[in-house]
UniProtKB/TrEMBL annotation:
Span of domain Ig-like: 47-138, 140-229
Family annotation (SMART domains): IG, IGc2, IQ
Family annotation (Gene3D superfamilies): 1.20.5.190, Immunoglobulins
Protein name: SPEG neighbor
Pfam families per record: I-set, IQ
Amino acid sequence: MSKAKAAPPPGCTLNINDPQIQEAAIRIQASFRGHRSRKELREKGPPKILQELKDVVLLEGSAAKLECRVSAFPDPFIVWYKDGKELKDGSKYRYVFEDPDFVALVVRDGELSDLGKYTVTIKNPFGQTSGSACILVEVPAKVSKGPDNIKAKKGTTVTLKAEISGEPPPDVAWLKDGDDIEEDDRVFYDIGETNTILTIKHAKMSDAGKYEVFVENNLGTDQSFARVDIL
């Protein structure tokens, strides 16, 4: 003998042919479709930078990383530039994607030429955006090429030239026989971005001696020597 099905409690039955029930179902479906469309619009759109790039300091011989947090769907196409020139992913510059939200550029084997403005462009089918920051390079002061020994005749002009480097730019001093040179109209020196030149006009016998160029910044010091003989 089969058991009879229990009737649902009063008020718990729905008549799907009821016009009010059908109208409510239509409103629910429309609301769901609208929610889904709004969700898709939030996810699909032009890329946005959520955390900007920041300037970084790169020490000579080391590596530095520029990174930012982005929001983009579909996944974006990333390109990095230095001073407007595209950087290729390779041994010197490495494109890094740490997770779906972070993109980074690693600059290896730091040198003074890495100083500059770096820009990342982030692009997908809905649009693109970009951000920029600078790499500041720090290099110990160095005399790249010291002055040459010189033999000059009395009364002529003597010039000693040295090639220098460093970032921040180094302070420069010239010395003779261990003492700082006091500049005047006859003996003076100029300091350029990559060199320094000591000039001695109307050379005297007393100008003969051991000359030194000395450079210094907050990362280090260096010096080089040359001998001047007056004939």
